[in-house]
């Protein structure tokens, strides 16, 4: 699991069949400067700190047949 910050949206007008409702977002992984495109079903926004699951764990969130998603926002980090 990764901690990241949402830095922008990735617009896609065409999607593979079976991909659920959600948005593609660009996130920057905290402490690494690495950027990822992730799938978001929570409605996260730019500047929000999030938790990201990757790999087969991300795909397993969805029912069979699993869509081709390998990075998924699974939580929003609350500010103290």
TrEMBL record:
List each coiled-coil range.
Answer: none
> Does the UniProt entry include the keyword Transport?
no
Q: Where in the cell is it found?
A: Carboxysome
Keyword list, A-Z: Bacterial microcompartment, Carboxysome
Alphabetized Gene3D superfamilies for the sequence = EutN/Ccml
**Record's keyword annotation contains Lipoprotein:** no
PROSITE patterns, per the entry: BMV
Signal peptide per UniProt: none
- One Pfam match, given by its short name, reads EutN_CcmL
The transmembrane residues are: none
Q: Which GO terms describe its cellular component?
A: carboxysome
Which CDD domains does this chain map to? EutN_CcmL
Give the matching PANTHER family: ETHANOLAMINE UTILIZATION PROTEIN (PTHR36539:SF2), ETHANOLAMINE UTILIZATION PROTEIN EUTN (PTHR36539)
Q: What is this protein called?
A: EutN/CcmL family microcompartment protein
Provide the species name.
Nocardioides agariphilus
């Amino acid at each position: 699991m990764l901690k990241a910050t949402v830095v922008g949206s990735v617009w896609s007008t065409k999607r593979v069949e079976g991909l659920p409702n959600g948005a593609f977002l660009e996130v920057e992984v905290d402490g690494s400067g690495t950027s990822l495109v992730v799938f978001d079903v929570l409605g996260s926004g730019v500047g929000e700190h999030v938790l990201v699951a990757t790999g087969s764990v991300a795909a397993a969130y969805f029912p069979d047949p699993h869509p081709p998603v390998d990075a998924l926002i699974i939580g929003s980090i609350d500010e103290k």
